Task: inverse folding
């Protein structure tokens, strides 16, 4: 127990991300309902109720809790549900409750199966508009609730992308598409669950309309699927999947060979990786790379020799793309036909027919330029084909260094930005950040019901040698 106390105290001091100041400390205004960067006052109804059930010793629990408390959307209540959990787990949970008023601890005797009925009991008292879940051995990225809110603003039930961490250190992605009726029917007809509770969310109002919520289902391997089917059977509910990676899942059933101390060391390793924003982005790239390469490998395996050789060549080319490599002079296509999503780190909406919008006040790309022989090595031209939602001030940074400040209008134009390489800016890999302080939603100005915070739209981005004048 003493070792656990040291871990919890260290995490409390350092945290996964810098702890945000309270409104009293930084003079900021209270956060409005639905999220934001400021602390939520205690009287404000939370945007999310987060359920964290736990039944075992708290070896991994502090890491899960810290990733919840570090959310960029801070207006939530975290309900830790002790399902017959040992005393040290309850003590650990109450430590966090004493430290943060958003944390509530519910102590129950061991329930049937995974204690589903306890979850329902907590939801009868829940105050959040939406419900999210996290397992005690899983981890969230800091934008998880922010992305979940974007999804649940539009649908009753949905999920973000499920990423498995394997015990050998590799990872894989579990594809899902709840917008597809065929996909939902497959979940109803077969023992098939692509939605771990850590990446699933729903509107509390929709849950309370169900004839039965979380309830004891008897011993069976998929209690989550039993619950999800209660939503999926309803024709009056809406469903979708938001294609973003915001969580890491460490499946217990695949770790029966590991002791709880082994598991705690594993979770800590990934927790430490999440400390570094660059590492978080690399994990996201690893996840998408695993999905695409797995799908292509399946296709290659099923085909004959001549076709297989051609596909292997395509696979090698695709590996370059998945490693963020961009040939100098070749545009990155941001339309629905292009693969710009492979370079996007954060702050982007979905690719549409002719463009892709930024979503929020900051959007980031990560690119590895591939230089041709004789290309200048002192810098390059960054050419944007862009338009703005209304008129937008745009600051362009490369590897954190300001390169240009532009005014982008609501008509398509080319914008050339001269980038000089330096000790701060590498020619081998660059991170391009678009800062858009005036991004706002069409809904806020009465143009449409679109709640995205639109800044600029891109149709293409090209890196050019400095000697190219056209």
Result:
């Amino acid at each position: 127990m003493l070792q656990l106390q040291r871990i919890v105290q260290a995490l409390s001091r350092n945290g996964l991300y810098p702890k945000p100041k309270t409104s009293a400390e930084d003079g900021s205004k209270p956060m409005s309902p639905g999220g934001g960067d400021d602390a939520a006052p205690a009287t404000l109804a939370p945007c999310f109720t987060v359920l964290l059930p736990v039944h075992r010793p708290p070896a991994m629990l502090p890491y899960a809790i810290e990733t919840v408390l570090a959310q960029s959307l801070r207006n939530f209540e975290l309900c830790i549900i002790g399902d017959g959990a040992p005393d040290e787990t309850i003590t650990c949970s109450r430590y966090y409750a004493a430290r943060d008023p958003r944390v509530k601890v519910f102590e129950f005797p061991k329930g049937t199966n995974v204690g589903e009925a306890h979850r329902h009991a907590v939801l009868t008292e829940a105050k959040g508009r939406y419900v999210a879940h996290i397992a005690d051995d899983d981890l969230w990225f800091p934008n998880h609730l922010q992305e979940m809110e974007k999804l649940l603003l539009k649908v009753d039930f949905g999920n973000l992308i499920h990423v498995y961490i394997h015990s050998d250190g590799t990872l894989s992605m579990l594809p899902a598409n709840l917008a597809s009726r065929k996909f939902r029917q497959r979940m109803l007809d077969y023992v098939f669950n692509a939605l771990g509770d850590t990446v699933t969310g729903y509107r509390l109002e929709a849950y309370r309309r169900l004839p039965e919520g979380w309830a004891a289902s008897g011993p069976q391997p998929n209690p989550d699927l039993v619950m999800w089917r209660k939503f999926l059977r309803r024709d009056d509910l809406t469903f979708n999947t938001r294609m973003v990676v915001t969580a890491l899942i460490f499946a217990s059933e695949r770790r029966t060979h590991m002791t709880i101390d082994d598991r705690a060391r594993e979770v800590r390793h990934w927790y430490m990786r999440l400390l570094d924003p660059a590492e978080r982005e690399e994990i996201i790239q690893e996840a998408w790379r695993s999905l695409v390469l797995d799908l292509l490998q399946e296709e290659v395996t099923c085909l004959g020799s001549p076709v297989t050789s051609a596909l292997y060549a395509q696979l090698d080319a695709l590996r370059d793309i998945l490693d963020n490599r961009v040939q100098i002079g070749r545009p990155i296509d941001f339309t629905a036909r292009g693969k710009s999503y492979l370079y996007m780190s954060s702050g982007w909406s979905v690719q549409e027919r002719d463009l892709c919008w930024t979503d929020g006040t900051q959007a980031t790309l990560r690119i590895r330029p591939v230089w041709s022989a004789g290309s200048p090595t002192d810098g390059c031209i960054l050419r944007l084909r862009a338009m703005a939602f209304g008129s937008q001030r745009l600051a362009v940074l490369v590897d954190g260094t300001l390169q240009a400040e532009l005014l982008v209008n609501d008509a398509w134009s080319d914008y050339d930005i001269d980038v000089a390489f330096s000790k701060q800016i590498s020619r081998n890999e660059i991170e391009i950040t678009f800062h858009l302080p005036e991004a706002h939603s069409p809904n806020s100005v009465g143009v449409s019901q679109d709640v995205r915070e639109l800044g600029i739209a891109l149709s293409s981005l090209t890196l050019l040698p400095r000697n190219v004048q056209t």
In short: Residues 282-322 form one domain. The chain has three domains: 2-275, 282-322, 325-465.
